Amino acid sequence: MATEMMDISLDAGYDLVFEGGDFIITESTPQHQQQLILNNKGDFKQNPAICVGAFNYLDDENFQELSRNISIEFTRDGMDVISIQLTPTGIINSDAFYQ
């Protein structure tokens, strides 16, 4: 059974979301997945070995390595990864959830 990952909510510009002067707490699995995919290794001081850095793969023709690295990082973060797919238009579809 999937575990809900609760965290402080971020808006589309990665700013904190406030309501009535307080942080908003939401289910954040998609937010965590997006952060793991987009950020580069070394971006998080607490754990500099995490993240994929998807923008580094823009000029690559072999997207299997990107899918593999996403799967590795999701698993390292505690997710059960069913599939990672990259569409021809460049959209990453992931079927992964926290255990």
Structural features, described:
With 99 residues, the chain is α+β, with helices and mostly antiparallel strands. The chain contains 2 helices and 6 strands; from the N terminus they run E-E-E-E-H-H-E-E. The protein has helices at residues 29-38, 64-76, and strands at residues 6-8, 18-19, 22-23, 25-27, 79-86, 92-98. Strands 1-4 form a two-stranded antiparallel sheet. Strands 2-3 form a two-stranded antiparallel sheet. The protein is globular and about 45 Å long. 15% of the residues are buried. The model has no long low-confidence stretch (mean pLDDT 91).
Radius of gyration, in angstroms, nearest whole number: 14 Å
Largest sheet: 2 strands, antiparallel
In total, the number of strands is: 6
**Proportion of helical residues:** 10-25%
Low-confidence segments, given as residue ranges, are none
- What proportion of the residues form beta strands (DSSP E)? 25-35%
Q: Which class do the helix and strand fractions yield? A: alpha+beta
Descriptive key words:
99 residues; 23% helix; 2 helices; two-stranded antiparallel ribbon; alpha+beta
Summary of the model, kept short:
The protein has helices at 29-38, 64-76; strands spanning 6-8, 18-19, 22-23, 25-27, 79-86, 92-98. It is of the alpha+beta class and 99 residues long. A two-stranded antiparallel sheet has the order 1-4. The chain has a two-stranded antiparallel ribbon with strand order 2-3.
